[in-house]
Design goal:
The complex is a heterodimer of chains A (303) and B (241). The model of chain A has no long low-confidence stretch (mean pLDDT 94). In chain A, the strands form four sheets. An eight-stranded mixed beta sheet of chain A has the order 17-10-11-14-13-16-9-18. Chain A is α+β, with helices and mostly antiparallel strands and 303 residues long. In chain A, helix 1 (18-27) runs parallel beside helix 5. In chain A, a hairpin with a 7-residue loop joins strand 13 and strand 14 (234-236). Chain A has helices at residues 18-27, 138-141, 178-186, 257-261, 276-301, and strands at 37-40, 45-47, 52-61, 64-65, 68-69, 75-78, 83-85, 89-99, 165-168, 189-191, 199-203, 218-219, 224-226, 234-236, 243-244, 248-252, 268-269, 271-273. By secondary structure, chain B is of the alpha+beta class. Chain B has helices at 24-40, 75-91, 114-121, 125-133, 227-231, and strands spanning 5-8, 13-17, 45-50, 54-59, 99-106, 137-142, 149-152, 167-170, 174-178, 181-184, 189-191, 194-198, 219-224, 238-239. In chain B, strands 5-12-9-10-7-6-13 form a seven-stranded mixed β-barrel. In chain B, a hairpin with a 6-residue loop joins strand 6 and strand 7. Chain B is elongated and about 65 Å long. Chain B starts with a strand and ends with a strand. The chains are: A alpha+beta (303), B alpha+beta (241). At the A-B interface, strand 12, strand 15, strand 16 and helix 5 of A face strand 3 and strand 4 of B.
Chain lengths: 303, 241
């Protein structure tokens, strides 16, 4: 994540599913923010020219190593000459592929993160590209049998689109007209195919403000639910611009951003109102649990 | 002077609101507050995003936990600390803004909409250029794309509607107007503003020590240059301190 330059219009970017990045990195012995690949809806076919330890977390991928099914959410050692096929996603939309040593990407403004929308950092992968891997810490390299255990993804991956995302009130939530306010929390929206890392466009009941308001550009955040004049909301995600000129009708709880990231085009999105205190309590609990799991992984892989 | 208010924009952004309009003096208060918060090194503050009449503070809420009330979001503590800093800031004068001169080649292939703007405003093309070069603008905010500066101070006679059909690609360096605003495209981007000209100066380069030429609060003046100067090797903009 590119932090510290937002005042110049430079957003954070970074992973759509932050726990998946931190867990995949831990599994291969990397620091949590080491650069990794984010795969969206379908990943690449990767040919290994050297031995590497990799791990995939996030979406449920029908992962194949030289044609054989292999598990995700665990570290695996892949020998030079092997081919890893990440093309078929079974559930979810975003997976993280981490490799021990991290991808060797020169940082730009303090971060290796790609921000395609802003034109910063590495370009999306294309067939024929070669990926460079950074040096592997000795401790991580010496571990044997890392793949004997696996993280239970139940706690860290949720592709059940019937479960609502929790939405905080934002500046203009109460400016919606009464039917729109009701619809926002009662009806289902669908993820549009126009969605990307900038934002998830939602299709559903057209929402309207009670009284149109003249708005000047104001800062926005990941998870901000904007309402453009067409009435179909957009939930901003990793590569969102730092400011926006549309009404902000809600703010998705930080703890649910990873769940939003796993919704595919056509999936439904429902919202449930939450208070800031309750959302914060959930976030703190998630961070405690994630911290404990990361510590366990590090202890086991560095034993 | 209206009182400032705070809004939580999620768990880790606080929006400090001065007003909700485009006004040069209100915007100057935003920049003074940003400078004061920056200088005060307030605990947990990670980034500031100044906008027209609001200032976003991105922070780490874990650094403001209230151990007496662990289940309560701690934004109120940060807001109180910021309020004290901002109140002191408005009493003192902020640093004098930098003045940056941006050379612009107006009209022709450099500014395809100059003729349309002249027609719409009933002015000659030369008058449009003169009116655009006359004011000292204030960088109200950066947003939309890295290094894209929204400038305040456009002469009211140059206020024209946006294009009905936005361009898919506005050339890098285009100087454009839309409504009460004027700005410069730091790279090739889609856009609906009317294009008056282009500058040869690089507005944004992530590899520079100062990636964005124009920072929030800076003052800017445009200077018309002939096409020959546009085609000369790139030169840095003059900073007239």
């Amino acid at each position: 994540m590119r932090i510290g330059h937002a005042g110049l219009g430079i957003g954070r970017s970074g992973p759509m599913d932050s726990p998946a990045l931190r867990l995949a990195n831990a599994l291969v012995g990397n620091a949590g923010d080491c650069s990794a690949l984010e795969l969206s809806l379908s990943g690449p076919l990767l040919e290994f020219t050297a031995d590497h330890r990799v791990a995939i977390c996030g979406a449920e991928v029908d992962l194949r190593l030289d044609g054989d099914a292999v598990p995700t959410w665990c570290a695996m050692d892949i020998a030079a000459g092997s081919t890893l096929d990440t093309r078929r996603f079974r559930r979810g939309a975003r997976a993280i592929l981490a490799v021990a040593g991290g991808l060797d990407v020169a940082p730009l403004l303090g971060s290796p993160s790609a921000d395609v929308n802003a034109g910063l950092g590495p370009s999306p992968l294309r067939a024929g590209d070669e990926l460079c891997v950074g040096p592997v810490a000795h401790a991580a390299r010496s571990v044997a049998g890392a793949q004997r255990w696996r993280i239970d993804p139940a706690h860290w991956f949720d592709a059940d689109d019937s479960r609502p995302l929790r939405l905080l009130k934002a500046t203009h939530t109460d400016k919606l007209d009464a039917p729109s306010h009701r619809a926002l929390f009662a009806e289902a929206f669908r993820v549009s195919t126009d969605s990307n890392r900038v934002g998830v466009r939602l299709l559903g009941p057209g929402l309207r403000l009670g009284v149109p308001i003249e708005l000047v550009s104001e800062p926005v955040a990941a998870g901000t639910l904007q309402l453009p004049p067409g009435g179909q909301p957009i939930a901003l995600t990793a590569e969102h611009p730092t400011t926006g000129g549309y009404p902000r009708i809600g703010q998705i709880a930080e703890v649910d951003l990873a769940r939003l990231a796993q919704r595919r085009p056509g999936d439904q999105v429902r919202f449930e109102m939450i208070t800031l205190d309750a959302a914060f309590a959930l976030l703190c609990r998630r961070e405690r649990e994630l911290g404990a799991l990361l510590t366990t992984i590090r202890e086991r892989t560095h034993a | 002077m209206s009182a400032i208010t705070f809004e939580a924009l999620g768990e880790s952004t606080l929006l400090l609101r001065f007003d909700q309009c485009i006004d040069r003096s209100i915007n100057a208060r935003v920049h003074a507050a940003a400078a004061a918060i920056d200088a005060a090194r307030v605990r947990g503050v990670l980034e500031l995003i100044p906008a027209y009449a609001t200032l976003a503070i991105r922070y780490d809420p874990a650094q403001w936990l209230d151990h007496e009330l662990p289940d309560r979001h701690p934004w109120r503590g940060l807001a109180a600390a910021l309020e004290a800093v901002v109140e002191r800031a408005t009493a003192t004068t902020a640093n004098a803004p930098r003045l940056i001169e941006v050379p612009v080649c107006y009209g022709g292939a450099y500014g395809e909409d100059l003729a349309i703007v002249a027609e719409h405003t009933g002015l000659s093309q030369d008058d449009v250029v003169a009116l655009h070069c006359a004011p000292t603008y204030q960088v109200a905010m950066l947003g939309f794309a890295p290094g894209f500066a929204y400038l305040l101070g456009l002469d009211a006679r140059l206020q024209v509607p946006r294009r009905a059909q936005p361009r898919v690609r506005v050339p890098l360096g285009s100087v454009a107007i839309g409504g009460a605003q004027t700005g410069i495209y730091p790279r090739e981007l889609p856009g609906g503003w009317q294009l008056l000209g282009r500058t040869p100066v690089a507005l944004f380069d992530a590899r520079r020590a100062r990636p964005a030429l124009l920072a929030p609060g800076d003052h800017v003046r445009f200077r018309a240059i002939p096409a020959e100067q546009f085609e000369q090797p790139q030169h840095p903009a003059d900073t007239l301190e």
